[in-house]
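G., the chain you wanted modeled:
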Amino acid sequence: MVYTEFNIEEAKNWLKEHLNEERYNHSIGTMEAAVELARMLNLDENKAQIAGLMHDCAKCFPNDKLLKIIHDELTDVQDSELVNYKTLHAPVSAYVAQHEFGITDPEILSAIRWHTLGKVEMSNFEKMIFLADKIEKSRHNEEFRNECMALVAMKNGLSLAMFRCYQETIKSLVDRKLAICHVTISVYNDLLASSKMAEQEN
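Predicted structure as tokens:
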């Protein structure tokens, strides 16, 4: 995809029509956080802007529509990913980004696809979008955001920040008595090992 062909304002207008106000503001916040992180990590800011803006584009689709798209169009979604309805939108958002907006860049699509559950051995770009989603300013947890940003600023700190996010995610799921996908546990264990290595290097 030629990134100049992606019209940010047109995408924002589409999101305004398909998301509620809270989710739209979150998408703008994630876009801004992604660009900020990309600048810190020396990653592509233009791609970060697109992935951050579009990561939740299917979030407000009804569950039956999400499941229909998953069952009819997507072959890579595992049954284990369907145990928590709050994560259904991630693969569908990648699908919408590709088919509604013509985004074909695999890094952008993969970052959108995995921004909720994550996966083992995520790329730095995928980790960045995952993290931006969790720390954008409308989340109203400035202390947690500042903690994660401080970790990112350290050598190999992205893994430390990701591990911190997974700690909070798992705690939240337990507190709300929601199912935890085995993928989340696998990623947690992978990040635990990575974070220990990063700590040793700092």
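Residues 3-201 form a domain with the Hypothetical protein af1432 fold (CATH 1.10.3210.10).

Shout if anything looks off.
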